[in-house]
Each structure stands twice: as C-alpha cells, then as structure tokens.
Amino acid sequence: MDFLQLLSWACIVFTVGMFSTGLTDLKTMRESKSTDNIQFLPFLTTCLNNLGWLSYGMLKRDQTIVLVNIIGALLQILYIIMYFHYTKHKRLVMSQTVAAGTVLTCGWLYFGMFLPEGDSRLSQLGLTCSVVTVSMYMSPLTDLVEIVRSGNVQCLSFPLTVATFFTSTSWVLYGLQLNDYYIMVRRSTGICASNHSPQD
Question: What is the DSSP letter of 34?
C-alpha cells in the first residue's frame, strides 16, 4: 500500500468518524423528542458543503472525495430529517432548507451551465468550496470569545474537536500528495480551529 492510498483510507475513516459525531445529537433528539439545545444550521451547511465537495470530487475524478462526501451528505440529510421531525419550529427549519436549496440550485446552474468544462470550472468550484469550508471552520471561533470569557466549556464537543484535528491533518497531507491547494487550504483551518479549542 503506497502513502497516497494510506492517506486516502485515513481521510475516509477520520472524516466519516467526524460526520458521525452528529449521531449523539440524533440520539438526544430521539430520547428527548425535542431539538432543545441542538442547532439546525450546522447540519444544513455541512450538507451543502458536502454536496459542493462531492461535485468537486466528481469533476476531479477523485474517489476519496466522492465517497466521503456521499457518506457525509447522507448523514446530514438523516440529521436534517430527524431535526425536522422533532422540532417545534418547522416553518423556520423549512424556510432555511428552502433557502439552502435555492443556493444549491443557483450554484448548480452557475457551475454546470455557465462555466466552460475543464480546469476553469474545477478551479472556481474548488475555490468556492474552500471559502465555504473555511467559513464553516472559522464561525465557531467567534463563540470562543464567549467561552473564554465565561469559562464554560460544556458547549464544546471534545470528540468533535479531536475528530476535526485528525480529519484535517489527514486531508492536508492528502492535498499535499495530490498538489491540490483547495484540499489543503480548506483543512488547514480545521487544524487551527481544533487546536484553539479550550479543554476541561
């Protein structure tokens, strides 16, 4: 087994593990029959992110990116369905989902119909996906100020922090091997974000 294949397996295992951390929220929703203290937008934005990277992986013909993002999107869809089932705020969840669907449709039209096939499409899609992923990784850092100020780290998920670190590291190494800066940039921020999370 060569180094690239080993990194590919590491990316798959760690990323699926990271996406699976949402199963604890799923369990909490089922047990409490509510969505109290569980945020909806991370499920929705992660699903959009997975679908974007799935498109990138298909254009690049990279089976690792495709497989990971199919699994990720399916898990996020499961979390979204369960959230919708248990939430008291169905109208809000539905409107956010419709807005996300609109963004996805516009993206599909732009990248699929207006951009020429080839390197230009791949490059612009990679850049867009990287910006979205970096934004997703950096947004929890805004909560870090409040966590540090209050000293309350209960809202931080230690398993998710560890999973993010290992997942991001494996993807950065994978991106280096492929000489793909979009993969490296998107995951470098994950390493930084996971290293700056305070511990108990």
Answer: S
In a 13 Å sphere around the CA of 17, the CA atoms on its Cβ side amount to 17
CB 168 within 8 A of CB 187: yes
For every residue of 157-169, DSSP letters joined together read -HHHHHHHHHHHH
pTM value?
0.85
Whole-number Å distance between alpha carbons of 86 and 20: 19
Q: Report yes or no: 129 and 54 within 8 Å, Cβ to Cβ.
A: no
Residue 181: both structure tokens together: 């800066």
Does the structure show a pLDDT above 90 at 1?
no
Domain that holds residue 111: 3-195
pLDDT of residue 106: 95
Q: How far is CA 131 from CA 47, 53, 154, 159, 187, in A?
A: 15, 12, 29, 25, 11
Q: Does a structural domain hold residue 200?
A: no
Map residue 153 onto helix, strand or coil: coil
Band of the pLDDT at 143, cuts 50, 70, 90? low
Q: For the chain, what is the domain count?
A: 1
The residue with greater pLDDT, 146 or 168, is 168
Q: What's the mean pLDDT when you consider all of the chain?
A: 86
Instruction: Enter the tokens of residue 36.
Output: 């109290």
In a domain, 10, yes or no: yes
How many whole angstroms separate alpha carbon 167 and alpha carbon 11?
6
